[in-house]
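Hi Prof. W.,

I finally got the Aldose 1-epimerase prediction working! I wasn't sure whether to trim anything, so I left the full sequence exactly as given:
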Amino acid sequence: MIIQLTNGSQRLTLSTRGATIFDWDPGIGTSVLDGYRSLAEQEENDGFRNAVLAPWSNRTEDATWDDDGVARSTLGLTNAEGLHGLVWSAEFEVVSETWPDGVVDYEIIGDHIELATTIPDSPAYPGPVDVRVRYDISDSGKLGVRIAARNAGGREIPVALGWHPYVRVEMAKAHLQLAATHAIVTDDRLLPLPGEKAFRALEKGLDRLSREISLDPDLDTGFTGLGVDRGWATAHLDTGLGYEVEMSMKVDNGVGRPNFHVFTGAPLKRDPLKSLALEPCLTMANMLNRSEEKARVMVQPGETRTLEVEVVVR
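And this is what came out:
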């Protein structure tokens, strides 16, 4: 189902499949996010456009992981690369809304929407895990994103969350500034190298809060060691389209290795290099197979892990 949320001049369009944003106009007359244009295009899943990533983000080596001696395979539920968790294709329900029978498309006049689904227990991943996604457009020019995953099972489990938005850019004119100390180094499968080899120190700039990230067409890299101001890490993107986007992620330094994963979208089937994936993630790729990282993101029964993101257009 397609839903349009309208608040004054702001408009947010999303699909209940994956709780996935299709577009967001913050009141400037055009969408800042480059999402799927139809349910049919979403079904093809080219690029995981604006996908919610839970209970892990990015790649899992060979789509398998060791769960305390139990070999688990995500094949059949994700893809050959174990990409992006288990909810991007799940059907979500809108919380506290009454839906008329037979409605295909629906418009809501309001400033927020919340959707929910449950990841069941399976051979791929121990559940159940209750996932809620809230989008908020109550403030002009600002999108609030809150992804929460509650461990509804009877044992501790690894839970790390992410979001995969594509911001429209003119790549030749775009500039990305990011407070980070290290780039995550990967092999030819885009899996982080073992141990500390996975972290390459970035050259020191004059201002740690304004280090520019080169937007090479082949860029598909996570940046970590994030600078934190009052609990938030922020990326600044001049889109080259006449407006700037500021994306902030709430960071708990005790949970995972937070990073902004940056992907230029060169392999996309539609409009390659026309948008930049700027992905706030609570942990790095292949978390399920890195013991030190998995230990950081364990969630006890009844507890909830949350990713909070704010996107501001200036």
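The CA atoms of residues 175 and 238 lie 5 Å apart. Does that look reasonable to you?

Thanks,
D.
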